[in-house]
Amino acid sequence: MKRYELLVFDWDGTLVDSAAHIVHSIREAAVDLQLPVPSDAQARHIIGLGLGDAMAQLFPDLPADGWARVADRYRYHYLSGESAVALFPGVGEALPALSRRGHLLAVATGKSRRGLDRALGMAGLEPVFHATRCADEGFPKPHPDMLLRLLEVFGVAPEGALMIGDTTHDLEMAAAAGVSSLAVTYGAHPAGTLRNAGALAALDTPADLFEWLHANA
What pLDDT, in 10s, does the model give residues 126-162? Predict the structure, then answer.
C-alpha cells in the first residue's frame, strides 16, 4: 500500500545535476556587471529562491531596478552551457517506475515556467509528470504556495504528499504546507544543514533516494 499518493520533486540539484552550472552562471553574471562576486556557498544557498529574494541576498546594495540586468546576464551564461546539464544517474528510469507503481508525480521548482518547460523537453520527461509548478506562477519557495496548489490540483491531503528536495527552501516549504519531506545531499545545500532541517531522511545519492522511495513511499 502506498504511503504517499503524491511525490513532488524539486528540479535543479534534485533530479538534474545543475547546481554547479547555476553557481558558475551567477558568478559570471556578477563579473559581467562589475558586482561583488558571490562565493560558491553564497551562490549555492540561493538556488531555488525567487528572483527578488535571491538578488536581495546576493547583492544587498543593488537597487531593485538592477535585478533584471543580473538576471539577463545569468540567463546568458546558463543557456550557453545548458546543453551539458544532465539528469542524475538513474532518474530517467526511476521516475517512470514510480509512476507505474501508481504515484502521482509533480515538480515544484524555482525555475520559471519557460525554463522548466525547456528543461523537461531536453530531458524527455514531459510525459512523466502529472503537474508542475514554477516560481513565476505564484509565491516562490519557501512560501508553501506551490505545494498547496499541487495538493489542490490533485485533491490530495497534505499527509498524502511527500516533497523531495536538495535545499532548506524545499524543506521549509514542505513544513509550511504540512507536507513531509525528504532531503538529498548531493545538490545545492550542505549535507549537515539538510540533516538538521526536519526531513524524514537525508539521502546521499540518487540511488539511495529511489531505494528509499521504493521501500517507504
Answer: 999 999 999 999 999 999 999 999 999 999 999 999 9
Name every residue whose Cβ is closer than 8 Å to that of residue 63 and which is 6 or more positions away in sequence.
none
In the annotation, is 117 catalytic? Answer: no
Over the stretch 173-195, which tens digit does the pLDDT of each residue have?
A: 999 999 999 999 999 999 999 99
Residue 10 annotated as catalytic? yes
The span from the CA of 35 to the CA of 84, in Å, is: 27
Whether the CB-CB separation of 29 and 70 falls below 8 Å is answered with: yes
The pTM of the full predicted model, rounded to 2 decimals, is: 0.95
DSSP string of 43-96, one letter each residue? HHHTTTB-HHHHHHHH-TTS-GGGHHHHHHHHHHHHHHHGGG--BPTTHHHHHH
